[in-house]
TrEMBL record:
Similarity field: Belongs to the TCP-1 chaperonin family.
Reaction equation(s) it catalyzes: ATP + H2O = ADP + phosphate + H(+)
Subunit composition and interactions: Component of the chaperonin-containing T-complex (TRiC), a hexadecamer composed of two identical back-to-back stacked rings enclosing a protein folding chamber. Each ring is made up of eight different subunits: TCP1/CCT1, CCT2, CCT3, CCT4, CCT5, CCT6A/CCT6, CCT7, CCT8.
InterPro entries membership: Chap_CCT_eta, Chaperone_TCP-1, Chaperonin_TCP-1_CS, Cpn60/GroEL/TCP-1, GroEL-like_apical_dom_sf, GROEL-like_equatorial_sf, TCP-1-like_intermed_sf, TCP-1_chaperonin
Entry GO CC: chaperonin-containing T-complex
PANTHER family cross-referenced by the UniProt entry: CHAPERONIN (PTHR11353)
CDD domains associated with the record: TCP1_eta
Record organism: Chloropsis cyanopogon
Organism lineage string: Eukaryota, Metazoa, Chordata, Craniata, Vertebrata
Function description: Molecular chaperone; assists the folding of proteins upon ATP hydrolysis. Known to play a role, in vitro, in the folding of actin and tubulin.
SUPFAM superfamilies: GroEL apical domain-like, GroEL equatorial domain-like, GroEL-intermediate domain like
Protein name: T-complex protein 1 subunit eta
Record's keyword terms, sorted: ATP-binding, Chaperone, Cytoplasm, Hydrolase, Magnesium, Nucleotide-binding
Location(s) in or outside the cell: Cytoplasm
Gene name for this UniProt entry: Cct7
Alphabetical list of PROSITE patterns matching this protein: TCP1_1, TCP1_2
Amino acid sequence: QPTPVILLKEGTDTSQGIPQLVSNINACQVIAEAVRTTLGPRGMDKLIVDERGKATISNDGATILKLLDVVHPAAKTLVDIAKSQDAERGGDTVSPVRAGGGGTTSVTLLAAEFLKQVKPYVEEGLHPQIIIRAFRTATQLAVNKIKDIAVSVKKEDKDEQRSLLEKCAATALSSKLISQSKEFFSKMVVDAVMMLDDLLQLKMIGIKKVQGGALEDSQLVAGVAFKKTFSYAGFEMQPKKYQSPKIALLNVELELKAEKDNAEVRVNTVEDYQAIVDAEWNILYDKLDKIHKSGAKVVLSKLPIGDVATQYFADRDMFCAGRVPEEDLKRTMMACGGSIQTSVNALSDDVLGRCELFEETQIGGERYNLFTGCPKAKTCTIILRGGAEQFMEETERSLHDAIMIVRRAIKNDSVVAGGGAIEMELSKYLRDYSRTIPGKQQLLIGAYAKALEIIPRQLCDNAGFDATNILNKLRAKHAQGGMWYGVDVTNEDIADNFSACVWEPAVVRINALTAASEAACLIVSVDETIRNPRSTVDAAAAPRGRSRARP
């Protein structure tokens, strides 16, 4: 009996080899179960309640996975990959094309399905590296195939491009809560993105939510809009509308400060005290005077603007708003030109912004300040209306998706058919390819091909169709060369999704495939988890931490 070598502190759980692989694979299946039913236009939504009891209703894979508290280390990887799909494509691209996922949901599903297909091989003791190599090959082939068959869109014809973008946006919105009004919103989204300059920065589209009113009351402001800020007396006397004003953007507080910073001033006579007070007032009036002289008509400041200043501006027909949130100030700066000043001494013409029209209007229960006709950057603000708060949040998420999709479609102008069509085509292509090669690779690429069918299958399941039946029809169609055939969710059948305008940018699909197969490779290549127990300091917390898997 040799003495056992104790290498790791006791209580460390290590599990190795095949059982570990299998358990990792199972963990990923569970994650996929969580988002499986959200795919596609007939997808269900999830209601997630976090520890603080805040309820979120969402249809978006990334949002759901973020809110789940995943403890299992291997499953965490999957969640992170889904999140990265989100970040990198900018925003969520769960672009459930009228049937056919995109971004996060389908990445998670595909990765889990890849793993599920190779699980029997792992159990039989096939080496993970062989699996990984096969997957790399298969992904490479699939990506090239997508690039081959993607159809590019003509940029020259503006109307043509516009209708295309609207279709992409409508496709992205169709699985969301707001799918009833997707015509309305897809127009709005395309308008919004078209207003931007070539960089297409997301920051330039602001989304503000105002409760109350109907969804259809939402509007797109071609410029910057923000909520009226807190204001003092005298505010009501200020004009609420200007034609082409100059705008001063400040980071200066225009109010009297109470001297509370332990400033001790010893005065002997009342006159001395008065002089101190006067000095303070003079400083303030001096600032105000400089602002007035600069010719600015609208004054926005990040810091508070006091009552004296408000009155002063009102007397001179100027509009002011204090405590404007920083990002709104920045967007105004980007839109109207000018720059944010931290002192009032250098207010020359070139640091003032300009816009064609400034007005304050009532939207719902809130007053909003709108700047329209901005010369500089092309920015816009979408003002969302709607009932419940959760509903508006979900609407915002959905619009964000759609904006990302449209933006991507503008940037690279090739599209493929959604609704499981592209997946079926790739599946057929890889299956045919796998028959031409000898050895284990054949089985694995076959497995990869089979795994791709999860997307159309899940679409059928979510819509309540007979998946096996429809998949058989699809396989037959693709074998005969109907390469854009996918699930037709409205008629429980298959249809040529390209002519049905169910499109999504090819980039989205390529990204989804690569991300999913990377995820699968990553998880397959782990064959041991070593978990150090918590040190004695939080020994009390350790048992809780381990068993805190939330249902």
